[in-house]
Amino acid sequence: MDTERLERDFFRTLNAFVEPAVRAGLGGPCLIPAGLIVLETTGRITGRPRRTPLLASVVDGCLILATFRPRSHWVRNAAANPHVRYWLNGQERHGRATVILPGQPVQLPATLPPLVRGLAENLLVRSTEFGWSIAIVEPNPA
Which helix (H) or strand (E) holds 26? Predict the structure, then answer.
């Protein structure tokens, strides 16, 4: 069995147990600005919803997500369709993802809070030089 398939099967099995607990609010960012969330993207090929538990940091109301795995489908799905749904501390929310990929030009939305914009321009964009893929999720206004 190839490594990619083993990795995929491992994360599918793990996510089947973790995702319902995180959607219910377990492990979410509370006292510290980092914790587990569930991100729902639209499959770029199937068009079906895809839910992934992820570690996220909350900065000025925005989520910062990152992965070093170049095959992460949630990144490719969010890049193809930035309208996402997520569960943070047991509450369902909607937002818009800005994906920053290695070797790709970056266009940050003007609506980013100044703190998040500064973090993105001075740290997050540079981290892609080392192979990281980043997503910034801005919540939709209520």
Answer: none
Residue with tokens 């981290």: 127
Query: What's residue 17's pLDDT?
Result: 85
Cα 37 to chain centroid distance, Å, stands at 9
**Alpha helices, H only, the chain:** 3-23, 73-80, 114-119, 125-127
Token pair belonging to 36: 């587990």
Structure tokens at 14: 């793990």
By three-state DSSP, how is residue 29 classified?
Answer: coil
| pTM for this entry | 0.88
> How far, rounded to the nearest angstrom, does the alpha carbon of residue 89 sit from its chain's CA centroid?
15
Tell me what the mean pLDDT of segment 120-139 comes to. Answer: 94
What's the length of the chain?
A: 142
Which tens digit of pLDDT belongs to each residue from 60-113? 999 999 998 777 899 999 999 999 999 999 999 999 999 999 999 989 999 999
As a whole number of angstroms, the distance between CA 142 and CA 133 comes to 28
Q: Which residues pair with 100 in a beta bridge?
A: 134
Distance in angstroms (rounded) separating the CA atoms of residues 142 and 66 = 26
Percent of the chain clearing pLDDT 70 (strictly above): 98
Which one-letter DSSP state was computed for residue 105? -
